Amino acid sequence: MRPYHLIPVLPALALIIMPFLPFVNTSELWFGLPRMLVWGGISCALLTPALYLTERAMTRSRGGEDAS
Amino acid sequence: MNTVLVFAIVGIVLIGVLGFLGRRKPVRDLSEWTVGGRRYGAYTMWFLQAGEIFTTFTFLGLAGLAFSNGAAVFYSLPYLPVAYCVVFFVARRVWTLGKTRGYLTQGDFLTDRFDSKLLGTLSAIIGVVFVLPYLQLQITGLGLIVKLLTGNAASATLSMVIGCVFLIAFVLWTGLRGVAVTSYFKDAIMLIVLVVLVIAIPLHFAGGISGIFHRVQQLHPAMLTVHAGSHDTTWFITNMFVSALGVGFICLPHNWPSIFAARSPKALRRNYIFLPLYELTILIPMVIGFAAILVLLPKTNPNGILLSLSQNTLPTWVTGLVVVAGTATAMVPAAGIIIAISSLVARNIARVRNERGQFWINHGTVVAAVGLSLLLGIFLPNALANLLLLTYTGLVQLAPANILGMLNRKLVGKWPVIAGMVLGLAVVIVFTFPFPTAFGTFDVGIIGLGVNIVAVALGALIERLLGAAPAQRTEDAVTA
Lengths: 68, 480
What we know:
- By secondary structure, chain A is mainly alpha-helical.
- Chain A is 51% helix and 6% strand.
- Chain A has helices spanning 9-16, 35-61, and strands at 29-30, 33-34.
- Chain A has a two-stranded antiparallel ribbon.
- In chain A, a hairpin with a 2-residue loop joins strand 1 (29-30) and strand 2 (33-34).
- The longest helix of chain A is centred in the last third of the chain and has 27 residues, at 35-61.
- The two termini of chain A are 24 Å apart.
- The model of chain A has no long low-confidence stretch (mean pLDDT 90).
- By secondary structure, chain B is an all-alpha fold.
- Helix content of chain B is 75%, strand content 0%.
- Chain B has helices spanning 3-21, 30-35, 42-50, 56-69, 76-101, 106-113, 117-150, 153-174, 176-206, 209-219, 233-248, 256-260, 265-279, 283-295, 305-313, 316-349, 355-379, 385-388, 390-395, 399-406, 414-430, 444-465, 476-479.
- The longest helix of chain B has 34 residues, at 117-150.
- Chain B is globular, with a radius of gyration of 22 Å.
- Chain B starts with a helix and ends with a helix.
- The model of chain B has no long low-confidence stretch (mean pLDDT 91).
- Chains A and B meet through helix 1, strand 2 and helix 2 of A and helix 5, helix 10, helix 11, helix 13 and helix 14 of B.
């Protein structure tokens, strides 16, 4: 396990725990949308840059051995 | 002939023709047919794997789940992105093993990794039995779309029959290549239709998307939260985990060919980076489900609400496009599932040695699986409904075997893995059918997985105590 393996853990955890967060699992809205939708959507979108950073770190550590 | 039926038939024929365009000549080699010669780049892989997201369940079922259970529908938002995080890390290993050892199926992988034909065959039978209802779901979904919009059962049957004929024909001709080509069309029309729906329906009924949620907040605030009941937080988290583990550890047989088809592990990882962004599109049917809460009677058939709202809001020809998109969400995933079923039967269940025999058993299975699903869809549409409950909870029982198979070291032999798989499956079946309420809303797939893991661990311990530690894998120096 390398440190870069942990980068996507944060947004993934944010997604998993969303029904247990009282300020997310509520009938209140953010920007006119359900808070679960906004929280889940943002966490989901953040996984892309997180995985991208991990990919870059993995490629560097392997010396770019995987051809595209 | 009804306009909707015309659009449905045009959609089916179009998908069939596009499928045929995948190849000039029919494929004669099972490897080429199943995994496309292992040479798909990032672009093709994108459509192949993104295409797996939108099935008839995503298109019709998520809108229905939002309509009947409100915020509980958001359980389906995390599971695929979380699964992509897992498979992002394991795909390289699986792809490398597949390429160096010539795997085409999950059964090939387990047979080789545990040196056990029995384990490979057992996993293949589990894969076929639990994914067959998923195939039938796509075919009945196709009929359901036509039936809901025309109100005519005969039109639904006709569309299912024509759909199955074209499905068999293009899958036999092109194999996985046809799935990739039809996926381009499917994703394009899906995105167009979803954008139209998410603008038109909220605008028509509540002046916009935020209008919908403000009115739901006033009239049905509980629908915006995961609350006590049949779809509570326990249901949410355990269902999400079972689904994420199932996809993340590649327990669904139709996820294997698309991994082996990649030209390189980098092409796969690039996909898994961007698929979470694409996953955001599944929010659109959910928004439409919330709109339906305001407009339709609570006892409306949840599966039909997206189609009902589009019929009430849009001109007939736009509803026709929705039908074409719905048809695509049924036929394209069905094609991928058929490839997985037939290759499992040919490679891991029938186990014919010569390649020609394997090829013909594969093709015969395509016809038999689609034919059986069609007959059940027409005459006994609910026959496999119970098995559908086990698709994820049952298939996730393959996760320990897959994980142990991916490791460099062979930590445990075949018998503990087989015992764990069988016991896990038995637990899931017992607590799904005879005692469905024993664990409340807790997903029994997790309970089964717990028993499965304990059985594997105890088996490994017994192996060590008996001095029967498994022989190490000889190829790992090459494939690690």
